[in-house]
Amino acid sequence: MVKIEQLNIDIETYSEADLPKVGVYRYVDDxxxxxxxxxYAEDGGEVETIDLTDKSSQLPAGVLKALTxxxxxxxxxxxxxxxxxxxxxxxxxxxxxxWHDTMxxxxxxxxxxxLGQVAKYLKIDxxxxxxxxxxxxxxxxxxxxxxxxxxxxxxxxxxxPEKWSLYVSYNRQDVRTEMAIADKLKxxxxxxxxxxxxxxxxxxxxxxxxxxxxxxxxxxxxxxxxNDLHNAELKQVTGLDNPNSxxxxxxxxxxxxxxxxxxxxxxxxxxLEEGNLPAVVQTTLRLRLSLxxxxxxxxxxxxxxxxxxxxxxxxxxxxxxxxxTGRWAGRLxxxxxxxRNYMNPTQLxxxxxxxxxxxxxxxxxxxxxxxxxxxxxxxxxxxxxKDKQFMICxxxxxEARVIAWFANEKWxxxxxxxxxxxxxxxxxxxxxxxxxxIDKKIRxxxxxxxxxxxxxxxxxxxxxxxxxxxxxxxxxLPDLVTSWxxxxxxxxxxxxxxxxxxxxxxxxxxxxxxxxxLKAFVKDDFLFIQxxxxxxxxxxxxxxxxxxxxxxxxxxxxGTHVGFAKLETYGGKxxxxxxxxxxxxxxxxxxxxxxxxxxxxxxxxxxxVVAEVNLDADLAQMEAVMCEVPQWAKGLPLNAAGFTTxxxxxx
Length: 651
Description:
- 46% of the residues lie in helices and 17% in strands.
- It is α+β, with helices and mostly antiparallel strands.
- Among the domains are: 6-190, Ribonuclease H-like superfamily/Ribonuclease H (Nucleotidyltransferase, domain 5, 2-Layer Sandwich), CATH 3.30.420.10; 213-291, no CATH class; 410-487, no CATH class.
- It has a 6-stranded antiparallel β-sheet. Strands 3-2-1-4-5 form a 5-stranded mixed β-sheet, sandwiched between helices.
- The protein is globular and about 80 Å long.
- The protein starts with 5 loop residues before the first strand and ends in a 6-residue tail after the last strand.
- The mean pLDDT is 92.
- GO terms for molecular function: DNA binding; DNA-directed DNA polymerase activity.
- Residues 375-617 form the DNA-directed DNA polymerase family A palm domain.
- One of its GO terms (biological process) is double-strand break repair.
- This is DNA-directed DNA polymerase.
- Its EC number is 2.7.7.7.
């Protein structure tokens, strides 16, 4: 038998679970799940397709063996789906270290995430079959029973043999497309260290995290009760049959002399803050806001996505989801975008108990606002396994430390090395006031400047960071920008260094070397910036265009809408990408070390790691492991602090 080294795979499946809403783990955990079609190619050869709905068909013995053979690399586009689904079919967890994901290769190069979009952008010969969505909807999802389909709830191959034949061909073509993409990008191989991180990421997603179902269901019941109450109030105030109808509600507002083009959350909040609306309109708008609260809907996501086989939710993170920096992206519950809790642990304990008891009156009595209480408790619905605890540890001011390190801003590096209050120190430098004399008001200015201005932002960046909400007058903002830049001259110089290096690389070629081993160069229509870790961030089709102040740097990337668009970047934005990518590398390597030391992450958020550990685990050890500085980051003053808890929360 010829030894297989590589197996390219694509599958089509069926499940009654809604994949986008519940994720792949819950999708395959559904009793209705099955693999319908399995296409594969051995070592880049011809694509073979097995119709598993034909009970006389089965996977060849060689393919079955290869699926668990550590010497065979399994490759798929968005490989988590294939690995988890095939593992379910085989009733075992497949080792992610044996899998490579072509989507990761595309994301590393800053290309579109979707298979069809990548194929189209790269102009490869083997394009994705555009009939896929229609075929998936027909065969891979339940159907609505009608008289025309004899009231069936699922379409089988025998119900439309012609369509089924197309579906089999579609699946086979996906393997060809994936292989063509991989072949096109083979000159840009992903480093082994990144595949190690990918495997770690998959182990974290496989591990999952517990859900406090009693709390989540109590919150859902209270939320539904509030919605019913607010709906009734809206009907009474407006006299409308359906005040949730945008058309009806806008018409009612118009009768009061108030017109809105849109009624999005931001628009309503801005109008309420201005305070120029009639009282009855303010009341109805607040009621609509409460009904559209997406935060508390996360409880529903938790319950719906929880796997029945282990009572945990899986797949909360996507590796390389932010393809400009390589950072992770949140999925399902969106752990990177949860409302912050401001209650202390004692208050959280009381509020959690009241929600579990569905005692809305007591919540309102103790905490004033039921809706806000439910929002603050969302984090706490993520819980460790029985006889375990969460150990939560995060880097302190990581981006400010990294940018100071790159720029060699010695004063701030010294403050970080001594673990001083960087916001006080910044305010002291900005306003020439001794640190001992910095009061809360002045420190606040140092804080917002530190958080907002590191990437060449101006007054707009301060406003976006909440400067006006903090009570800082708008006419003070330009002076804050000037003062911060004077206090951080080396950071300003770093923006200019990076911009000049990138322009030189695009215009004249060659490798342009910059601070801390950074290197910018262009290869095969990609601008690469090599980081100190050795990883590279990429910009597709980089070019220079004439601008009002010299060259503009433009490239192809994901804009605010679906599809690729021409984007512009500049020194400060490039520095932001470099800093965040470096912070990502520090976190990723720290998680590998933590895993080796027995601190197993169940998820992570920005620069924070949430590990599920034994009750006697050593917090100081976790903090120490986090603070180990890689050889490539010598001189970077890291600091991390943590705490233990019986549910996820902010300290």
